[in-house]
Amino acid sequence: MTNKELESNSKTKAELVQEEQAQDKKLAKEKKEKEKKTRRKRKKRGRIRLIPIWVRIILFVLLAAASLAGGLMVGYGIIGNGDPAEVLEEETWTHILDIIRGVE
Fold this sequence. Notes:
Strand content: under 5%
Shape: rod-shaped
Order of helices and strands: HHH
Number of strands: 0
Radius of gyration: 39 Å
Number of helices: 3
Helix content: over 70%
Distance between the termini: 120 Å
Low-confidence stretches: none
Mean pLDDT: 83
C-alpha cells in the first residue's frame, strides 16, 4: 500500500466516524422531539379533581363561619362568663355597639 492509499483509508474512517456522530445526533434530536410531543399530550389532558373548586369554596366559607361563631361563643361564654348562646342574639351586639359608641 502506498501513502496515498493509507491516507484515503484514514479519511474514509474519519468520514465514517463523522457520519456515525451525525446519525447519533439526529437520533438524539428525534428522541427529544418525541418526548416533547408526549409531554404536550400529557399537559393537554386536564387534571381530574376529587373535590371540585366550587365545593371547596363553599366548604371554606362554611368552615370559616363556623370557626367565627365558635370563637365568639368561647370568648363570650367561657372567657366572659356569659351564656354562649347569647352571643348569637342581636340584642347582645346592639348592646356591645352602644358601649363602643358611648351611648350607654
